[in-house]
Amino acid sequence: MLSAAEMFWLSTVRRDGRPHVTPLPAIWFEGTLHISVGRHEQKAKNLARDSRCALTTGTNQLRSGLDVVVEGTAVRITDRSRLLRLAALWRSKLDWHFEICDGAFRDPAGREGLVFRLTPAKVLAFGKAPFTQTRFRFPA
């Protein structure tokens, strides 16, 4: 499910404690989810202050599909070789083209995207028809 999903909802917390939720694509690679966020976006500011977050994906159907919530901590990736591999995955899966510059993605318009990995601490899976719930915990 996580490797096939394209769109997720990222939940972070603002400085004043209010939630911030936004849709974005994520890539599953080597046991972790990876996201890219604009350097000056609210979600980047939130993750810099508090790296705890959740990524959610699933369907908008009541009686079919699977919804998954991944809770964990986002860690910024700046390693050039890993960023190159991730950029290739973004290109093959989403047809998004990135160059690597200063430890981040850069798109053709010159916008910079900070890249984070979210290693799961807890995953909740909600099945529909039949309705089920499964929880997975990962060692810290």
UniProtKB/TrEMBL annotation:
Q: Which UniProt keywords apply?
A: Oxidoreductase
Domain called Pyridoxamine 5'-phosphate oxidase N-terminal: residue spans: 2-123
| Superkingdom of origin | Bacteria
Q: Which Pfam families match?
A: PNPOx_N
Q: Which residues cross the membrane?
A: none
**Protein name (database record):** Pyridoxamine 5'-phosphate oxidase family protein
Question: Could you read off the lineage of the organism from its UniProt record?
Answer: Bacteria, Bacillati, Actinomycetota, Actinomycetes, Pseudonocardiales
